[in-house]
C-alpha cells in the first residue's frame, strides 16, 4: 500500500520502530530473488519489519536447475524453510567424463552429506526453490511489493525511491538486485560493472522420459550424478531435478570458439529458436551429448557469464545500506555456490543485526563485510580455476589434469576433489559466529 492510502507512512513506520520497538528495525530489501528472500526470512525471524521491493510484476517458471549444498541446506532447515514437498533430487556427487568418447575420468562422491557436513546436498529447479522461500517469507509477515521498480535512493534517510516517485523509508536498505546491480557503483564511488568472463552458456530442460526410454541415456536419470563432459574450450554439465522428472543440462563454451553471431553490445541474454548452434559447436562430442542436443527442443536461453573483481565496499558510506548476494559477488556457475553464498550472506547479516540499534548499525554492517568478503572472494576465484580446468585443449595440460583429478590432493584442479577444501566449503556454518562489540 502506498503512502497516504490509509496506512502509516513508511517514514512513520521507521520512526516508530526506532522509538517503540527496542532493537527491531524497519528494513527495506531491494530484489525478491533468492538472496533477497533469504535475507528477508532470516531478519524476519528476529522480529525486524521487512518490506521487499521487486520490479517484476509476478513470479513464475524462471531459471533452470541449481544446487543447494549442505552449507546452505543446514541454514534453511534451522529457519523453518519447508523442503519436505520441494521436488528435489539428492546428488550422488560429481562425475567427470571425456568429451569425445565418454570415458570416465573421475567420480567424486558426496558420501553422506548429512553426517559429513550437517545438511543434505540437493539438486532442484530454481523456480521451485524460489517458491518455498517465498512461502516462508510470507508466513513470517514479510511484505513483498511486486511491480515496484526502484529508480533511485536517498542513502542518508535511508530510502528507496520508486518509479513514479514514492519514497519507501526504513532504518536499513539491503540491496540484493543481482549481478547487474544499479546501486553497486554508488557504494564504491565509481563504476564497477561486472566482468565478461568470455564464456557463454545454454541452459536446457529435457523431460526425463525422453532419457529413460533410451538404454544409453537412462543412467543419467536413475543414477543422479552431476555429470561433466570436459573438452577443448567447452564443457557440458547435466543432472536430474524435480525428483528425476526433468534433466537439466548446461552447455558452456568460450565465445571465441563459437561459430555463430556474437552477442551485440548491450546484449546479455538471447532466446535461441533451435539447436543448430549447439549442433555446430559440439560436433564431434560423444553420442550422449549429441542426443541431449537432439532433445533440446526450441526457445531456450543463451547468455553471457559475468563475475566481478573484488568489491571494496559492501557497506554504503552512510552506514545505512548494504549489498548482498550477486550484487556484491556475482560468480561463475562452475562452483555451484552462488546461491549458497547469498544464503551465507543472509545468515551473517542476521547475526550482525541481532540486538543492534540504529546507533550501532554501521559498525555491525562493517563486521558483516569483514566476515563475508574473504570467503566469498575465495569461492569466486575457485570458479575461475574451474573455468580453465574444464576447458583445457587436448595435450600435456589435459593429461596432467586427468591424472590429478583422481587424487585427494591440493593439486587436484576440481575444488571439492580435495577433502580439505571440500570440508571448508560444505562444512562451513555461517551462523556459528559470535557478535563482539
TrEMBL record:
The keyword Ligase does not apply. InterPro entries: FAD-bd, FAD-dep_Monooxygenase_BioMet, FAD/NAD-bd_sf. It holds the Pfam family FAD_binding_3. Keywords: FAD, Flavoprotein, Membrane, Monooxygenase, Oxidoreductase, Transmembrane, Transmembrane helix. GO terms for molecular function: FAD binding; monooxygenase activity. Belongs to the paxM FAD-dependent monooxygenase family. PANTHER family: MONOOXYGENASE, PUTATIVE (AFU_ORTHOLOGUE AFUA_2G01950)-RELATED. This is FAD-binding domain-containing protein. It comes from Parachaetomium inaequale. The lineage of its organism: Eukaryota, Fungi, Dikarya, Ascomycota, Pezizomycotina.
